[in-house]
């Protein structure tokens, strides 16, 4: 049991930290510009594919740096020549723009790299098990994923709290108009934040690509969860995104380990429910089986009972 | 000038139409409706290569019905039953009368029902559905159809063979059942539970798990759960990425169990088994594997590997698809017609000697094929290896075709 708890915690933390790498950029962009960037997960996918392509020529490690930079530049260009133009038509236009962009990127990726997963390999240097606990091994690459995301989190935190750039960004989070009035070039800040957010997503892609398979469906399968993280964490709150990412990562991993169903819950009350009762499978489905939808349940509950999220300071 | 251009355009269009018509008149189209994107794409692509190779081989021998060529046309159903129906309709609109599909019983049931309804409403334009791999028993029992033919042994037959094999393995104490959450996964789990209870009541089922179909990219949480359960063996019907990624996660965490599988040999599977380091501890039940001694089939598999193996080195895998296409060709020749209704009549009680030199037969009562089934284990020291791993399949059990026959509840409406 202890073994299951330890490894589920590790797996949950890892998944949560990956989510955070994506959610941090998304929440910054969302709260600054009011744009819910539907294409955010697509930049994560682009990161993985760029990393894969670079790794074929010069190995994994250069890709870890180059791919996020490249995607960051693409992100900045998208903001400068796409979003900024659409901006004057309001938020709905921006939303639709990113929505279309997500489909375009997916189609493009399919055309260039095909529909079948690509063979993105773990670097040879990290192809061993980091440690063995209760004779279960834990791969070194997963440790690397975890450490990389923690390091990025700390870096981001320092950047935002200890530098002038961070000061302006944080100010723009809560009072965008005020920052503009004070003479800062808010559009430039927007472009940089958008680019950096996309770069962070790409970094997550390069880290996750070899372990979680790099395929055209990877953006579509991760995208919805990101919105859950951002809403649950609360708008404009990096801390909130952090807590929500870990929460959802852990919930999803631990849910898989639980075999309790509604029928089990009511059994002590003297009620016997089977597949043939009214409601059918609803009573028999275990928590493990419904694990993938639990985050969405959380989303609905948060929107009803705490619309500004766990740590948010603005209303959605 | 404009007139001349228009005339030229017309001539060109006429020429193209004629060419297209000519090709249509000569070739017999088979629509391949399987996942070519998403989690099932790896095996979908692998299956398509095999169909293409079969079509080339049959055409090289002169085609069917005195010189007509076969032609495989691919449609991507993305692994979904709804999308399958869209693609079937597209294929029918393009003039296709023969459909083949195999990956996913959900899609298979949808296609079978669609084709059955279509044929009722469109007499004279019937469409046949050849199923090379979807093994939900319902397809040849309560949901059987005259227009559906299956070349694989159904899930209950496979599970009966696997559990018979497990009966003699006294070291098995705790079994974990994991599968995909859809009709086929439910069928596997049900059969495994009842059969184990009957044959080995002393075995404890320590886990009975269903996970979303072809959606999971990280099986680590599931492997942690299997590990914690203390299971010494795992039974799974998983296929596609759900099989290779499950094994990959097992390799990462160093899980030491015996695996009883249907599809560990599917594309990507052998590579993952090699990573687990479980030498001859992963078993599969199939109608063939590369180390079944049969010169004709070995030569054929070698030729395929040379032409389509590519960098991944994925070799031949579906003898059932080979049986299907050869029997289809034989049925067309026998009926001297490519009219689906006549082909169906020729096919439904057909006996055929396949490229292993053994007798297989189609049962008219439910249109399912019976053939020898092999239980094999994957590991070192074999003649042929898979996916350049150095490991290959070794036969550990053989069930003769007549011993795989189980009763059917199918009540088929045979059209007059």
Task: Describe what you observe in this structure.
The complex is a heterodimer of chains A (316) and B (416). Chain A is an all-alpha fold. Chain A has a domain at 2-219. In chain A, 72% of the residues lie in helices and 3% in strands. Chain A has 14 helices and 2 strands; from the N terminus they run H-H-H-H-E-E-H-H-H-H-H-H-H-H-H-H. Chain A has helices at 2-33, 40-58, 60-87, 91-113, 140-162, 164-174, 176-181, 186-208, 218-233, 238-257, 262-266, 281-284, 287-290, 294-305; strands at residues 129-133, 136-139. A two-stranded antiparallel ribbon of chain A has the order 1-2. In chain A, helix 9 packs across helix 10. Chain A is globular. The mean pLDDT of chain A is 86. With 416 residues, chain B is an alpha/beta fold. Chain B has 2 domains: 2-153 and 315-371, Response regulator (Rossmann fold), CATH 3.40.50; 156-286, Response regulator (Rossmann fold). Helices cover 42% and strands 19% of the residues of chain B. Chain B contains 12 helices and 15 strands. Chain B has helices at residues 2-26, 41-60, 81-93, 105-121, 155-167, 183-199, 220-229, 241-253, 269-276, 295-308, 319-335, 340-347, and strands at residues 27-34, 69-76, 98-101, 128-131, 148-150, 174-180, 204-211, 233-236, 258-261, 282-286, 351-353, 359-363, 368-370, 373-379, 392-399. Chain B has a 7-stranded mixed beta sheet. In chain B, strands 2-1-3-4-5 form a 5-stranded parallel beta sheet, sandwiched between helices. In chain B, strands 11-12-13 form a 3-stranded antiparallel beta sheet, with no helix packed on it. In chain B, strand 3, helix 4 and strand 4 form a beta-alpha-beta unit. In chain B, helix 11 (319-335) packs across helix 12. The longest helix of chain B has 25 residues, at 2-26. Chain B is globular, with a radius of gyration of 22 Å. Mean pLDDT of chain B is 90; it is low at 14-24. The A-B interface holds A 1, 3-4, 7-8, 11, 15, 110, 115-117, 119, 129, 132, 135-139, 142, 211-213, 215-218, 221, 252-253, 256-257, 288-289, 292 and B 36-39, 41-42, 45, 76, 181, 209-212, 215, 217-218, 220-222, 224-225, 227-228, 241, 245, 252-256, 312.
């Amino acid at each position: 049991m202890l073994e299951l708890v330890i490894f589920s915690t590790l797996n949950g933390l890892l998944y949560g930290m990956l989510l955070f790498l994506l959610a941090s950029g998304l929440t910054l962009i969302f709260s600054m510009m009011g744009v819910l960037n539907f294409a955010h997960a697509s930049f994560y996918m682009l990161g993985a594919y760029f990393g894969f392509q670079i790794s074929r020529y010069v190995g994994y490690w250069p890709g870890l740096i180059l791919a996020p930079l490249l995607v960051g530049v693409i992100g900045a260009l998208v903001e400068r020549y796409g979003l900024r133009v659409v901006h004057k038509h309001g938020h709905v236009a921006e939303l639709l723009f990113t929505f279309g962009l997500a489909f375009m990127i997916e189609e493009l990726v399919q055309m260039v790299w095909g529909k079948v997963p690509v063979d993105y390999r773990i670097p040879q240097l990290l192809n061993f098990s980091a440690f063995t606990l209760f004779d279960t091994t834990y791969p070194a690459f997963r440790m690397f994923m975890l450490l990389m995301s923690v390091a990025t989190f700390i870096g981001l935190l320092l950047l935002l709290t200890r530098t002038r750039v961070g000061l302006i960004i944080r100010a723009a989070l809560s009072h965008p108009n005020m920052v503009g009035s004070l003479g800062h070039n808010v559009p430039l800040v927007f472009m940089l934040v958008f680019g950096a957010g996309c770069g962070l997503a790409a970094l997550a892609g390069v880290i996750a690509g070899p372990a979680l398979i790099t395929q055209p469906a990877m953006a579509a399968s991760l995208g919805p969860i990101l919105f859950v993280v951002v809403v649950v964490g609360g708008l404009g709150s990096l801390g909130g995104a952090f807590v929500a990412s870990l929460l959802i990562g852990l919930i999803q991993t631990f849910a898989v380990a639980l075999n309790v169903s509604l029928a089990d819950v009511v059994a002590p009350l003297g009620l016997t429910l089977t597949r043939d009762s009214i409601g059918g499978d609803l009573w028999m489905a275990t928590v493990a089986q419904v694990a993938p939808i639990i985050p969405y349940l959380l989303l609905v509950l948060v929107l009803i009972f705490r619309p500004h999220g766990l740590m948010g300071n603005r209303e959605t | 000038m404009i007139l001349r251009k228009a005339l030229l355009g017309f001539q060109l269009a006429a020429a193209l139409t004629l060419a297209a018509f000519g090709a249509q008149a000569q070739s017999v189209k088979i629509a391949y409706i399987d996942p070519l994107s998403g989690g099932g794409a790896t095996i979908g692509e692998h299956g398509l290569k095999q169909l293409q190779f079969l079509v080339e081989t049959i055409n090289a021998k002169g085609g069917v019905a005195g010189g007509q060529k076969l032609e495989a046309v691919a449609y991507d159903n993305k692994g979904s039953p709804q999308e399958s129906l869209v693609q079937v309709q597209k294929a029918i609109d393009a003039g296709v009368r023969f459909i083949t599909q195999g990956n996913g019983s959900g899609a298979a049931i949808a296609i079978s029902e669609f084709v059955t309804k279509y044929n009722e409403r469109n007499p004279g334009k019937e469409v046949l559905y050849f199923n090379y791999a979807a093994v939900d028993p319902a397809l040849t029992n309560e949901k059987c159809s005259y227009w559906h033919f299956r070349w694989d042994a159904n899930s209950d037959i496979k599970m009966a063979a696997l559990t018979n094999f497990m009966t003699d393995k006294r070291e098995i104490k705790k079994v974990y059942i994991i599968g995909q959450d859809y009709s086929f996964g439910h069928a596997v789990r049900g059969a495994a539970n009842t059969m184990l209870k009957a044959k080995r009541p002393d075995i404890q089922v320590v886990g009975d798990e269903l996970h979303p179909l072809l959606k999971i990219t990280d099986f680590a949480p599931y492997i942690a759960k299997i590990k914690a359960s203390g299971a010494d063996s795992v039974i799974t019907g998983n296929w596609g990425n759900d099989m290779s990624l499950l094994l990959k996660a097992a390799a990462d965490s160093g899980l030491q169990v015996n695996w009883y599988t249907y599809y560990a040999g599917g594309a990507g599977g052998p590579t993952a088994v090699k990573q687990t380091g479980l030498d001859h501890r992963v078993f599969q039940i199939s109608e063939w594997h590369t180390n079944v001694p049969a010169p004709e089939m070995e030569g054929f598999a070698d030729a395929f590997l040379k032409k389509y193996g590519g960098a991944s080195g994925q070799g031949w895998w579906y003898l059932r698809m080979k049986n299907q296409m050869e029997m289809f060709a034989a049925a067309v020749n026998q009926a001297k017609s490519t009219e689906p209704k006549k082909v169906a009549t020729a096919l439904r009680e057909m006996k055929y000697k396949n490229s292993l030199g053994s007798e297989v037969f189609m049962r008219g009562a439910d249109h399912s094929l019976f053939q020898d089934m092999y239980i094999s284990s994957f590991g070192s020291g074999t003649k042929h290896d898979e996916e350049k791993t150095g490991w290959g399949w070794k036969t550990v059990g053989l069930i003769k075709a007549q011993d795989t026959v189980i009763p059917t509840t199918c009540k088929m409406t045979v059209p007059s």
